[in-house]
Structure formats: C-alpha cells, structure tokens
C-alpha cells in the first residue's frame, strides 16, 4: 500500500528547544511509522533575516545531527538539508511568477514581522512561495502545521490553482493541512504567557536540547512563578502550570498525580524535580548527538545521502514542471 507523503521542517534560527521537542519533534517520530516522511533542516528559510555565515553553517550541522540523535534516521525517513536540494529554489521562481503580489501582501505573518523591522527584506515577502515549493516539489499530501502556518497552506493551495489556470491541471498534488497529535504547548520560562521560542534573545527563557545539566537546573530555578506556595495546575498561575505540564509530559505521570506528589511541598521542589526529569530525558539524546557531531565524515555522508534521496523525488516534479511550461532544463 502506497503511503501518503508528509513534509515538515525546522528553520535554522536560534537553538532547538524543549518546546520543539515536546510540541513537534515527538510527533515526527510517530509519523515515520505511518507516512512516507520528508523532514528538512530549513536553512533557506532562515535567510529572511541576516545570518552570520559561520553561525548558519554550524547550526545547520547541529540541527541535522540533533534530528538524527532523536531517532529520525535514514532507514525511517528522508532527512535532508534544504539548501542541498536546489529544486526548492528553482521551483520557487516558477511559482513566484504565477503568484499575485496581493496574496503575499495579505499574509498575516508578513504584516506582523515587517511591522517590527526597520528594513524589510523582500525574502520575508516571498517566504510563503518558498514554503509552497517545499511542499509541492515532493508532491506532499499532508503538511503538519500550527495555527500560525495555516494561512501558508491556504496560499499553497491557491498557488496550485493559479498554476493550473495557466498550464493545466494534474501536475501537483493538492496538499492538505495535517494536525498531528500535538505535544503539550511549552511556554517561556521567563514569561509563561508566551510560547517557548528558539529565537528568543533571552537564553533563560528556553531549555535548549544542548543545555548542560547545570544550565537546565539554573534556568528552572529562575523560572517565573507567582508568589503563592501551593503546587497546583491553575491557568491563573501559568508559570507553575507550565512546569507541571513539562514534568507530566516527560515523566508520563498525570497532572493529578504530580499535584498529590507535591502536596505540602514548595515551588522549589517542583523546579528541581522538573529539572531532573528534563536532564534524564535529554541525556541519551545528548550522548547520541555528541557521537554524531564528532564524526564529521559520517555526518557529511548522511547529509549527502539524504539530499540525493530527496532530489530523486524533487527532480521528477521539476522535470514535469519544466516540460509543462515549455522551459528547457
């Protein structure tokens, strides 16, 4: 039975966090059992703002090695670096030429981000077309998305229609948004009303997958809570609720069980025990990562093989597109 194709990616900005692990990456590990899975380190997407070349190269390798350490190995999925598959960029130009400017100007994420920037780069405007190319070049059936990305999937579907209006139907698979079984929503340690972000300038606000045990403990000790003392899940105390959520997801214990366990104890006990749960969860991932990142030849080999496997699929789509539009390849 032919499996449906699913595509997802993580942008090489900041550091991969516990929020990424709980909120998305654990669902990736589930997807490989049921779908033909394509996962990418989306380094082209990070170019919408300036990236120091040395840092970008380092993060690209780090992210790829961390995904391998999480169990997303070549025998289970196609794991690749976006820039090593040039078909993404080639298809982007073609799709740009059928996408009305008005559609891009209306994108909520563009309006929000451009309002915060003094100098808006055109790449920020064109970002959704590159995203559409990522999806369409693999003939993806399903695209895992959060609330902030749904509009991009809608635009991708519109782009398919614009292309078909000009060049005829049947070339692209019409993608659908896929809402996988989501992990818990992990919030910032310094402002638990906001989602934990790997791009946050305050490193104390997130737990990076690469954080050493002492860093994790230090960040948890400083995590924002209210002035109370009762360890109970209450949305009016988002700091404590966030710590209980993290502990529950990683330990497998219910919130109710944890509330009983911490009865009569202080917030400090919750913070230290949650830190220990995080440390033990990340320990095997960090150990595997260290093995991979130290072997540059092995890492480069897997990146190269992943790119070749991705290009095998992508090049077929691009060849069909070139033929359809009358372009010599």
What's the structural blueprint in terms of helices and strands?
Layout: E1 5-11, H1 18-31, E2 36-42, H2 53-69, E3 78-81, H3 87-96, H4 101-105, H5 108-115, H6 122-136, E4 142-144, H7 150-167, E5 176-178, H8 213-221, H9 238-251, H10 255-261, H11 267-294, H12 296-325
Parallel strand pairs: 1-2, 2-3, 4-5
- Percentage of residues assigned to helices: 40-55%
**Rg result:** 21 Å
Taking the alpha carbons of the first and last residues, their distance comes to 33 Å
**In this structure, how is the largest beta sheet organized?**
3 strands, parallel
Total count of strands: 5
What does the overall shape look like? globular
Average the pLDDT over all residues and give the rounded result.
Answer: 93
- Topology order in helix (H) and strand (E) letters: EHEHEHHHHEHEHHHHH
Which structural class do you get from the secondary structure elements? mainly alpha
Poorly predicted runs of 5 or more residues: none
Trace the largest sheet across and list its strands. 1-2-3
How large is the share of residues in beta strands? 5-15%
Counting DSSP H or I runs of 4 or more residues, the number of helices is 12
């Amino acid at each position: 039975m032919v499996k449906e194709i699913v595509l997802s990616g993580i942008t090489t900005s900041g550091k991969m966090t516990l929020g990424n692990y709980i909120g998305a990456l654990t669902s990736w590990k589930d997807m490989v059992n049921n779908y033909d899975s394509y996962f990418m380190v989306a380094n082209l997407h990070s170019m919408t703002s300036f990236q120091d070349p040395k840092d970008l190269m380092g993060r690209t390798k780090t992210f790829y090695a961390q995904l391998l350490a999480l169990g997303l190995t070549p025998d289970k999925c196609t794991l690749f670096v976006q820039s090593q598959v040039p078909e993404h960029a080639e298809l982007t130009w073609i799709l740009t030429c059928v996408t009305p400017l008005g559609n891009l100007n209306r994108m909520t994420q563009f309006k929000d981000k451009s309002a915060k920037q003094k100098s808006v780069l055109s790449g920020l405007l064109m970002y959704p077309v590159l995203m559409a190319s990522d999806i369409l070049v693999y003939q993806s059936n399903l695209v895992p998305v959060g609330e902030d990305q749904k509009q991009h999937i809608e635009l991708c579907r519109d782009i398919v229609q614009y292309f078909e209006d000009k060049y005829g139907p049947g070339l692209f698979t019409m993608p659908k948004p896929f809402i996988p079984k989501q992990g818990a929503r992990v919030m910032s340690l310094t402002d638990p009303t906001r989602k934990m972000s790997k791009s946050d300038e305050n490193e104390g606000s997130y737990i990076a997958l690469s954080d050493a045990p002492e860093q994790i403990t230090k960040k948890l000790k400083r995590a924002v809570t209210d002035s109370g003392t009762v360890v109970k899940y209450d949305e009016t105390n988002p700091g404590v609720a966030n710590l209980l959520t993290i502990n529950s997801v990683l330990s497998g214990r219910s919130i109710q069980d944890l509330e009983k366990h911490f009865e009569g104890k202080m917030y400090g006990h919750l913070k230290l025990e949650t830190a220990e749960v995080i440390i033990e969860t990340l320990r095997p991932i960090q150990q595997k990562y260290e093995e991979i990142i130290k072997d540059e030849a092995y890492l480069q080999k897997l990146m190269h093989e992943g790119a070749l496997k991705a290009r095998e699929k992508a090049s077929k789509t691009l060849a069909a597109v070139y033929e359809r539009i009358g372009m010599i390849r």
